[in-house]
Design brief:
Blueprint: E1 5-8, E2 15-16, H1 18-31, H2 42-45, H3 50-57, H4 65-82, E3 88-89, H5 93-102, E4 106-114, H6 115-125, E5 133-137, H7 148-156, E6 164-168, H8 171-180, E7 183-187, H9 194-199, E8 204-206, H10 212-216
Parallel strand pairs: 1-4, 1-6, 4-5, 6-7, 7-8
Antiparallel strand pairs: 2-3
Length: 220
Amino acid sequence: MKYSAIIFDLDGTLLDTLEDIADAVNRVLRAGGWPTHALEAYRYFVGDGSRTLVRRALPENEHSDNAVDNALQAFKKDYARSWDIKTRPYAGIPHLLDSLVRMDVRMAVCSNKPHEFTILCVEKLLDRWRFDQVVGQSSRYPRKPAPDSALAIAQNMRLDPAKVLFVGDSGVDMQTAVSAGMVPVGAAWGFRTAKELMEYGCGFLARQPLDVLQVIGREM
């Protein structure tokens, strides 16, 4: 088998988290007397960490460090209570993961979601499958598209980065894969467009989760 492992992004790749994120941020905005946003807007607010998410959602005149800090803390409290109301694995993800397990392909998760929430999501909604490493955003590594977290995962799993697929739904993920020397696989079923994925270096565009098996070299 040409590739021995896959690193997955989480939000927009394994899990459809968009509605719970949008609902939590909108509740914070509403409480602050600020305009809320339609669900579609959040496709472009997410992907670069929770602080950037909150900053993008706030009005332009509320971008001071203090305003962003306060909104971020309110979001984290709300999201901790409400993150799993609508969040579920995408259709096809369970079949994909089952197939990868049968093929003895090792798996990991690398997300810009805060580390504690990343762990929580995987433990509650993806507990049927074994992930060798689960890494969310923290002070330990710079957030994607910096390749540090992806490379640390490969090193800890004793993998050659060139033998690893990196599957994600955004340009940030594609940049991460390219910088890490991994194979960038675009999850076109996720939050962003196929056009964005291709523009940022996607090597293989997966229209649906099971398309990822074609990159591995075998179909189940």
